[in-house]
């Protein structure tokens, strides 16, 4: 049972770790669990398939994905390692396996010391309970002993800045207060190994800065940390070493600068094909069906992320089943929590609707917008001028907007991202104001 | 840090074994979390209700009145020589605890999905906490029983000292059923819809409204495979001085042992996929 010995200096050793998911078991929440009837029907089908093995027609490929595929690495004690990669590359799965939430399909890992995992802030918070009660409950859930929570209680409340409301049920908290209290508990965990997943992306700018500061303290205490983030500035600030996970494999492992640069420049080659899965949730009357959504640069190469300010193209391929007289196409850019950032219709600027004959068609749209660093997703649809949906899809393709321009000359250097787009703005030079010039009324002596 | 490397425990992560026995020793190190989850359940249960903890009293009380009218007065079922309301209330106490326990436990994993997908802990503590939390309602309802006994002028015998054994048996039975139901519910939400029927069938298969003496002697052993038979007979013996449940104790205990052992094996077999499926 017990595998390779753990090298003496190592805190984490991972050997050939692999995790397989059934598609549909993870991707679409509506289909995550089956009913007994489905299973019975499925079992009957499987039996029939076994009997009819000779007929090639019956063989459908099993829909599995390898979220992790032969991942190996070692982390020494006291090392702080950033884990970077696109959405769905396997970063979170890696943390889930290492924190024992789910078992690997193959391979093994060994961890030396108490492991604390922080995949979300506020896990187990109960809205009906007071802030005080939730500190205890959440602390216990994250693996703290009661005595430990009692000892650190005052520090936690002070760090959160919600002490005036500590005996109020958290359902009355603002979302900012909630997150601050939750992070405060997590920040006072003291395990030897800490696994952190993108938890800095919460709260307001002020609080994020304090969180980053707190993380830095933790780093200096000599703890071993695996830190997953899309915030390259935070990764570079906290880590000396980084792992780039792509399509379930370790694409690069080395100094943080080298790995982050490799990730930012090489990520494009690994773009998803954008094919709309068969079980995608579609809304509309169905005369046409969108089959593929691609994000491309202006040369027509598929890309998975955008440099800061990079112009891009979205290409939709769709099948028309019944003719349409008055169609138009809409694309939307949204954040992953569903906030629509921008919409564009093919009729914008007075362009007319178009008729569609049965068959496969393709439409491209060139977009000029500087998206601030964040992961976005593309929504799209074919609609009629009457406003009726023909075929609309949400969240068909995720992509990241990066914090540096392709040339490297321009960058978004701030730890917090406020807003979604950078408008076209022209800044004029600063110039001295002559003594005799008219000044603002408030400044008049 | 000053901790020496060799002193730290090493955690090994490997693919799931197909059939395992749950790591019961690990539960002990998570005892504080079990305590916190029970405490949360109790604290939250009657929040934002007008009657609050009174529900713990009302539920068995209303059922008792219903049973007394229908089975005691109208159907005139025999009640082993004690007043029918007392006869049925002594059975409703463990019954409500059991029914509440399996219902809570069956839903426990699904309603804790937010925890299960984000934090590791032995999953067993979820149904354990769900079942144990029902003890509080039981304790509240028990005080009503004391009042009723004073009213009817019935006195305890020394058999009352054995009562905790039957309370424990009721808890273990609902835990055992809860193990199966909660793990099944993660996979098949059909369980949620089937629960009311299961509870109802189990109620009529247990001597809550009627006396076990009505069951033909030839069937008693099979009847006693329902552990609630021993629990309820035990309650009536310990509280009301009815006949001791010596004959039914063995088959009931045997059934519980099989149910728990099977439940533990099934649960730990399914446990590794909970986070992926729930």
Characterise the protein shown here.
The complex is a heterodimer of chains A (445) and B (278). With 445 residues, chain A is an alpha+beta fold. Chain A folds into two domains: 259 residues, P-loop containing nucleotide triphosphate hydrolases (Rossmann fold, 3-Layer(aba) Sandwich), CATH 3.40.50.300; 137 residues, abc- transporter (atp binding component) like domain (Coagulation Factor XIII, Chain A, domain 1, Distorted Sandwich), CATH 2.70.50. Helices cover 22% and strands 33% of the residues of chain A. Chain A is built from eight helices and 21 strands. In chain A, the strands form five sheets. In chain A, strands 10, 12, 14, 15, 16, 19 and 20 form a seven-stranded mixed sheet that branches. A six-stranded mixed sheet of chain A has the order 5-6-7-3-8-9, sandwiched between helices. In chain A, strands 2-1-4 form a three-stranded antiparallel sheet, covered by helices on one side. In chain A, a hairpin with a 4-residue loop joins strand 14 and strand 15. In chain A, helix 3 packs across helix 4, helix 3 packs across helix 5 and helix 4 crosses helix 5. The longest helix of chain A is centred in the first third of the chain and has 16 residues. Chain A is globular. The termini of chain A are far apart. With 278 residues, chain B is mostly helical. The relative contact order of chain B is 0.15.
